[in-house]
Amino acid sequence: xxxxxxxxxxxxxxxxxxxxxxxxxxxxxxxxxxxxxxxxxxxxxxxxxxxxxxxxxxxxxxxxxxxxxxxxxxxxxxxxxxxxxxxxxxxxxxxxxxxxxxxxxxxxxxxxxxxxxxxxxxxxxxxxxxxxxxxxxxxxxxxxxxxxxxxxxxxxxxxxxxxxxxxxxxxxxxxxxxxxxxxxxxxxxxxxxxxxxxxxxxxxxxxxxxxxxxxxxxxxxxxxxxxxxxxxxxxxxxxxxxxxxxxxxxxxxxxxxxxxxxxxxxxxxxxxxxxxxxxxxxxxxxxxxxxxxxxxxxxxxxxxxxxxxxx
Length: 311
Prior knowledge:
Layout: E1 5-13, H1 22-44, H2 49-61, E2 82-88, E3 94-100, H3 106-116, E4 121-123, H4 124-133, H5 147-156, E5 173-174, E6 177-182, E7 188-194, E8 215-218, E9 222-228, H6 230-236, H7 238-249, H8 253-267, E10 272-277, E11 283-284, E12 291-298, E13 304-308
Parallel strand pairs: 3-4
Antiparallel strand pairs: 1-5, 1-6, 1-12, 2-3, 2-7, 6-7, 8-9, 9-10, 10-11, 12-13
């Protein structure tokens, strides 16, 4: 029987001790712990990694603290466009959706793409039609309304600026949620979900739903979920790059993650981080920003939850 492990993230960026009140910090940590416990309990019960990452991400999507699902940010038009992806490390099957509106849990829809279609990625109206055909309920705009998100949007909606999440600077806010896990069978999985950028235009799509950029899983190497400035993560094909260093260069999980996040990304201005797990139950959570909402739990060990850089 293999070691089980699960890790989650809730976004990265300029997250400092001065940027959160004690009440906010407590709320974020409680939300992270709740999601990690949901996923870990499923793994303990012998459920597959795919189910654990999906349910952990659902928990984060349902919490308005995070820029995914219910907490998704506003677009230029004052609406919400969401992206998500999920991947199975055993079969390399993957499902992704992009630019959908009204879906309560985008990660569940991405799982349905695997189970009920011959495709990997569906977007926009077509993805929504697919959702209706498979009985997904749609939530009204009021479900996704959050006063804090609305305030964020109000500050930039009359400009051409876009804004990412979790920072004090308008152009450096990285809001995404994700989970990676390994089950008792040694199978890994990854899932990622996001509301994208505040005030985004033109149906912009980031790295979250692009397999190999923001999400990737392969039993032979690792499972990865990324959070950061998506344009850089797409250009660097971050998630697959980590996997390749393990597969072709025999890097350890930690070495591969640090090479990509702390070296390659930094060299051309990419900010953010990722969470990773391999079939042996090892976990890595590197980030080159000021902070990253993150948590993990291995087998019977205590849950680790953190927000800021460790000293």
